[in-house]
Amino acid sequence: MEYLKVNFREARRVLIDGKSSNQTNVVIEKEAGTYTISLVPPPDFKPKEIKVALDPGTTGPLSPKEVSFETI
After folding, report:
1. Which of 2, 49, 70, 72 measures 20 to 30 Å from 43, CA to CA?
2. CA nearest to 2, candidates 21, 27, 39, 36
3. What 3-state class would DSSP assign to 12?
4. Nearest to 66 by CA among 24, 7, 17, 1
5. Could you tell me the residue range of the domain that residue 21 belongs to?
């Protein structure tokens, strides 16, 4: 398993490849692979989506891959 943390100013549902996943600001477990990350509406954030590669053996629960969305 690999680990991802999606940062945003508030708790909001995360979309991974268009499907609802966990929430922002918590560590999410995913299989290694490449994913498109976004957030549920309202569309008050940028960028609109982020592509992220989770390579095998490169993350851990205490050192997840982090991506961030900003408020617009």
Report:
1. 2
2. 27
3. coil
4. 7
5. 2-71
Instruction: Please state, in angstroms and as integers, the Cα–Cα distance from residue 65 to each residue in 4, 36, 43, 56, following that order.
Output: 5, 14, 23, 12
Contact at 8 Å (CB) between 5 and 21? no
Average pLDDT, integer, range 7-16: 98
Summarised one tens digit per residue, pLDDT across range 24-46 is: 999 999 999 999 999 999 999 99
Does this model's pTM top 0.85?
yes
CA distance linking residue 40 with residue 9, whole number of Å: 14
pLDDT in tens, 53-70: 999 999 999 999 999 999
The total domain count for the chain is: 1
